[in-house]
Design goal:
alpha+beta, 10 strands, single chain, about 210 residues
């Protein structure tokens, strides 16, 4: 289980339809204030554009949602963009689509398809992350044990994730694992290293991890 899905980093993706340019900025955000800063920056960069439409979602349950057609016919830009974010089940995310009008009107249906396509394609390009509650462990092992540990990592109980590795007098690894597997994983490590391992529990934390369908 995870708390929510979002994206790892900003994506910029452009499509062209009947000479109109639609430039989508897909941005991870943590607050409405942060979104407003991004929007202002995009508006300044594309000050000659005809429209700066947007949709964003905040909170783990997507309870905060905002959108704007920015001069496009009502319901043809902001809402379709928001619908894509909903369908992808993404939150803590903003989509801003900049449009440079190409001289040919697309009609309501054409606009809906264009804004939907711009955001949907950007979502497919983005690296998604899942926010999960994990128990954080720090283990200390000898250098001679590292290759064996890494080789067996994907077979260990709970499929732990290595967050960081420090090469000191001994190797210190920070590992994330779901609390449901903690006891089993502790026992596995003790047996795996014949008791020659130090394990410190650093407590629970919400962390972002790569998400794969």
């Amino acid at each position: 289980m995870f708390n929510y899905l979002s994206i790892q980093k900003e994506i910029i993706h452009e499509i062209e339809i009947k000479k109109s340019r639609f430039i989508c900025y897909l941005i991870p955000i943590k607050s409405e204030e942060e979104f407003n800063q991004h929007l202002l920056s995009i508006q300044k960069k594309h000050y000659k554009a005809n429209h700066h439409c947007y949709a964003f979602s905040l909170e783990a349950d997507s309870s905060i949602q905002r959108m704007s057609d920015d001069g496009e016919p009502t319901g043809t830009a902001g809402l379709p963009m928001l619908e894509v974010l909903r369908q992808e089940k993404l939150t803590f995310i903003a989509a801003v689509v900049v449009r440079y009008f190409g001289g040919t009107k697309l009609g309501a249906g054409g606009l809906i398809r264009a804004y939907t396509q711009a955001v949907s394609e950007s979502c497919q390009l983005a690296k998604k992350i899942k926010n999960v509650n994990q128990t954080i462990l720090q283990i200390e092992i000898d250098y001679a044990q590292l290759d064996r540990f890494n080789h067996n990592l994907d077979q260990m109980p709970g499929l732990p994730s290595v967050l960081s590795t420090e090469y000191l007098e001994k190797i210190q690894m920070t590992i994330a694992i779901h609390s449901d597997h903690l006891d089993e994983f502790d026992s596995y490590l003790v047996n795996f290293f014949s008791g020659q391992v130090q394990i410190d529990n650093l407590g629970d934390r919400d962390i972002d991890m790569p998400f794969k369908k």
